[in-house]
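Notes from the 1:1 (GR / supervisor)

We went over the backlog. Supervisor wanted to see one worked example end to end before approving the batch request, so GR pasted a single chain during the call. The sequence is below; no edits were made to it. Supervisor asked that the structure be written out right there so they could see what the output format looks like.
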Amino acid sequence: MALESAAINVQTVQAMKSGAEVMKGIHGNLDVDKVEDLLDSIKEQNDIHETIADAISRPGQEMFDDDQLLEELALVGNEPGKVQNNVQNKNQDQTSHVFLPMAPNSAVSVPQSKESDLERELRELEASMLA
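Structure output shown during the call:
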């Protein structure tokens, strides 16, 4: 029994030694510092991605401050209602100078063209094929 146990121990140690050599080959030129640098780079890129996604998800919310816009509007001397009225008045002034032709009041008649001999023959041929 001791002899069998010793043989099993030798095989176990050889397998562990072989496994350690294979792991060294797999890891090759990797070390802890390189892995940490890679993880830091990935974290930095994720942070950049989150910042961009955050900015896209709420467009324009931080661009304008309502209080600041109202302050600027007051400095110009207009109230919100007056600005809208001024825009409408400007649009009316621009369209009042456009001259368009008068539309006809009655139905527009389209002159009927005379059927050519070829068209008549084609129509008759089509009718004979359908009959």
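Supervisor's comment: The mean pLDDT is 80.
Batch request approved.
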